[in-house]
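Q: Could you fold this chain for me?
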Amino acid sequence: MDDREEIVIEEFKTSRKNIKNDGGEKMKKDYIIPGAYGIAMLLAILAGIFLLDMPIVIVCIILVLESMIGVCLHDMPIWVHGIEIIISIVAGIIFKETVFMVIAAVIYVVTIFALHFMRESKSQS
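A: Sure. Below is the predicted structure, expressed as structure tokens.
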């Protein structure tokens, strides 16, 4: 009975080493895409607040809405994304905030790419 316990413990130790060595590099890669997305959002928020002198609440609401729309539409064909970007820019022209809505459209595109690359990296593992 002691032999079985030693074998199980030895298998656990070797399998643990493999997970630790392979998982460390993969875990670092998994944080690059969300980190880049977070930096893009932060830069868009700061640009809206400081460069365009917009209220922080409006900036955050619009950027979060653009991100949520991107999450909802990320599986759609490319022409749907084009229509959404055009709608965003037209809304910016109507409300005289064209520069900010172009920034919001960029956040939409960044959201789509982040979701695409996250799904791609998840399917490779």
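A (continued): Residues 28 and 116 are 18 Å apart (CA to CA).
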